[in-house]
Design a protein that fits this description.
There is one protein chain. The protein is of the alpha+beta class and 393 residues long. Helices cover 51% and strands 21% of the residues. It is built from seven helices and twelve strands. The longest helix is centred in the middle third of the chain and has 69 residues.
Length: 393
């Protein structure tokens, strides 16, 4: 879908630029033509005025040397009756008419502009001066110019399309990823909700069948509680996808110490030693409630996946990182990259309950703060989660 949208956006932008190029090209050609005509007429008028003022026709014979060399092949001078006094061969194919102004003629395959200017003395026309110049902007060249400009416009538009397509894909990438996450989230949520709902239905059917309503109702309530927990976790993830942090100065040292103390009793029940090495006065900019959830989730996870014989959980906080390491069952190397995926659970995890959303929540909260979290683990020896933080100076 997004590929098609990217192409549509790129095509629309390219079409807009192509139309602008065409309009600009036609305006440029029109301006070029008009400017060339004005310059040519100005040149011819200057030439005609110079020749008309130089010679006294009827007083002395006109000599070719009196015409400037640069003009001789483009000048013709006639008397008042229209007889040629001096003229180049260029005018052999041009009929003379006693009228002032510009005219265009095709001579030897080229277009020429010819200006006829009367020579006036004492209010009387004593002759005519004709000057000619080749029209540099040949109308026969116009189709070729238009074709060349079209080819240039198409080439530029193709380049623009490729660039616009790349920018459109890049701009739509976040939206595409969001939709993909939403689709995956919907599929996973549907799959995970199906299990507690099916169990709930089975518990109620069994209660109706054997008449043990109390036991069936209690079992159904447990199933409903599981479904409620799952829905709450799903809502938390949905909210975090569009969450705006309520940042403030957070004393991370105190927060981690409090979290460790809250989990000591739970750890002791499983014969787990909880060690802490917490640097003093580590302060960060962040959302206190969310950061408290990160520390609690990681500690609860470490306790949950401890070995039956117990073990040790080490919590280390420095000004640059928070590390929670355990000596639990560990994670297999092949599934380690997937531990932060939503709903992902290894076989051992499924046996211990849960929905596979805790670590997904942790990673999302860490990313919202602009931090990073990495995990390292050895199967059967333990796991360590390290959060690289940015503390306040």
């Amino acid at each position: 879908m997004f590929k098609r949208i990217s192409r549509i956006i790129a095509l629309q932008f390219t079409a807009f630029i192509f139309v602008l190029l065409l309009l600009n090209g036609f305006l440029f050609l029109a301006a070029d033509l008009g400017n060339e005509q004005r310059q040519m007429r100005f040149r011819l008028e200057r030439m005609a005025e110079g020749i008309a003022g130089r010679f006294e026709i009827g007083v002395s014979p006109l000599m070719p040397r009196e015409v400037p060399p640069g003009m001789r092949d483009r000048v013709q001078i006639l008397d008042a009756e229209g007889d040629v006094l001096f003229g180049s061969s260029l005018f052999g194919d041009i009929p003379f008419e006693k009228r002032q102004g510009f005219a265009e003629f095709s001579i030897q395959g080229e277009q020429y502009a010819v200006l006829t200017e009367p020579i006036v003395r004492s209010g009387r026309t004593v002759g005519y001066a004709q000057v000619a110049d080749v029209i540099r902007f040949q109308m026969d060249d116009l189709p070729l110019r238009v074709l060349l400009y079209l080819i240039l416009s198409v080439s530029i538009s193709t380049l623009i399309y490729l660039v616009a397509l790349a920018f459109a894909k890049r701009s739509l990438k976040p939206a595409e990823e969001m939709v993909e996450r939403l689709e995956q989230f919907t599929q996973d949520a549907s799959h995970e909700l199906r299990t507690p709902l099916a169990t709930l239905s089975s518990s109620l059917d069994l209660a109706l069948h054997n008449g043990k309503h109390r036991e069936g109702i209690l079992s159904a309530k447990d199933d409903l509680k599981q479904a409620e927990v799952l829905v709450e976790r799903l809502l938390e993830l949905a909210r975090l996808d569009k969450f705006l942090l309520e940042t403030s100065s957070v004393d991370l040292s105190t927060m981690v110490e409090e979290a460790v103390e809250r989990h000591r009793a739970f750890a002791a029940e499983k014969h787990i030693t909880l060690d802490a090495s917490i640097a003093a006065k580590v302060k960060v900019k962040g959302d206190a409630a969310l950061l408290r959830q990160v520390v609690s989730n990681l500690l609860a996870n470490a306790i949950k996946f401890s070995k039956p014989a117990g073990g040790t959980i080490t919590v280390t906080l420095t000004k640059t990182a928070l590390t929670i390491a355990d000596t639990g069952i560990g994670i297999a190397k092949d599934i380690l990259p997937r531990v932060f995926d939503r709903f992902f659970q290894a076989d051992e995890s499924r046996a211990r309950g849960g929905f596979g959303l805790g670590l997904a929540l942790v990673k999302r909260i860490v990313e919202l703060h602009g931090w990073t979290i990495v995990v390292s683990s050895t199967k059967g020896k333990g796991t360590a989660f390290r959060i690289d933080i940015t503390s306040q100076s």
